[in-house]
Amino acid sequence: MSTSQFAVYQLKRKPELRNFLYRTYEELAQEQIPVQVGNYEQVYIGTMKPGETPEQVKKNIDQRQPHNYKGHAISTSDVLVLNDNGETIAYYVNKNSFVVVPDFMRIPSSSCGLTKNTAGYEISGKGGTWEVVDYILMEGKNFFLMEHEQHGKDVAYVVLDQNGKVLVDGTYNGFDDEVKQKIRDYLHPPTQDSPEKQKPKLENWQKYLENGEYLRSAEMTEEANYNMIDGLNNNAAPKKEKKRPKESVLAKLHQKEKEIARRSGKKAMQEIMGQDMERAKK
């Protein structure tokens, strides 16, 4: 079973709207001034009995103003919006009567979409109506922070682009850094290369050709082994070379002496010393 509700709308406290305050509906009509939700703010929302009239709603508020009522006493130029049995009707509070305003909740069509004064806006998939409470200009485009008109700050804000597309579905901190980053991501969506565009893995010889002469020369001067032209400076030695046992330095020295003696046709130092010792014995 649906609950019947009503909402009280009063003119926003803006200098340009002061001349509309406490004016009768006939006076505004004579000057062709429309009564539209963009000039109003919701000061209260509550429940009512099914079938109640705007006169009864006003009387109840006058007799006992709710503690969370944010406006002044209901008077001429205010608007009462009654939602009874699924039907929503807006009534302009006139001097001694109520005038139905069928276009009160209608958002004027505009080529630029939302504006900083948009109110009474319906967001697809969300209940109630929303109004713009802040906006930001990024890269030549406007983005709007929408607040729920019935529940105010008790409901998370929603961020829309100027065409009404939801960019951030729920934030309590307005246009903070996180929201701004999401807007940037929307303006510049990341592009993913298809598998056809991804470069295949190159072999060493292919890297040799791609590196360029200057990079090849620089890399060759720093490498520790001969698998050097692969795009990586100073590759480590192959594992099989690392695991070889260390050789004795003294053994290497004796081996080198023998090699030198063999090449030069001379005897090793040990042999010469042995011959001298033999001569001394004789």
UniProtKB/TrEMBL annotation:
Biased composition (Basic and acidic residues): 244-262
Transmembrane annotation, as ranges: none
One Pfam family in the UniProt entry: YodL
InterPro entries: DUF4316 (IPR025465), LPD18 (IPR041258), YodL-like_dom (IPR025923)
Domain YodL-like: 6-101
Region annotation Disordered: where it falls in the sequence: 233-282
Occurrences of domain Large polyvalent protein-associated (ranges): 113-193
Domain DUF4316: 213-253
Entry protein name: DUF4316 domain-containing protein
